[in-house]
Amino acid sequence: MTHADVLIQLLTRVRVAHHLCGRIRLKLDADLKDLVGKADIPEIERMLDQLPGVSSVRLNLLARSCVVEYDADVIPMSAWEDFLQGHDTRPAEILRGILQQARHELTGALSG
Q1: Among residues 47, 50, 14, which one has the least CA distance to residue 31?
Q2: Inter-CA distances, 4 with 23, 51, 74, 90, 108, Å
Q3: Which of 36, 42, 58, 63 is the most buried (most CB within 10 A)?
Q4: How far is Cα 15 from Cα 5, in angstroms, rounded to an integer?
Q5: Which pLDDT tens digit goes with each residue over 78-109?
Q6: CATH number of 3-111
């Protein structure tokens, strides 16, 4: 399982705890034991930090929390909740595209 696969699985197990324009705190599902052993947390943070529009990511598995600071001019504020709730909106599509591009780049780097 690649880091991108772990990231995609993590995204299916989060909810928005707090959100201000440019900063979002996500709470992770309590059942992360199966992913924690597969996850290289510093590598996932590094990968997320490099996403267009993301300025920093802090993952804390002990607190089951992730804070993302982002540029709202690149990733619209509504993109996060729309994406996580599976809504098919333009903002969600922007975030989905950024994540898919990152997954593609990471998968290519691992296989090349």
Answers
A1: 14
A2: 22, 12, 21, 23, 11
A3: 58
A4: 19
A5: 999 998 888 999 999 999 898 888 777 666 55
A6: 3.30.1360
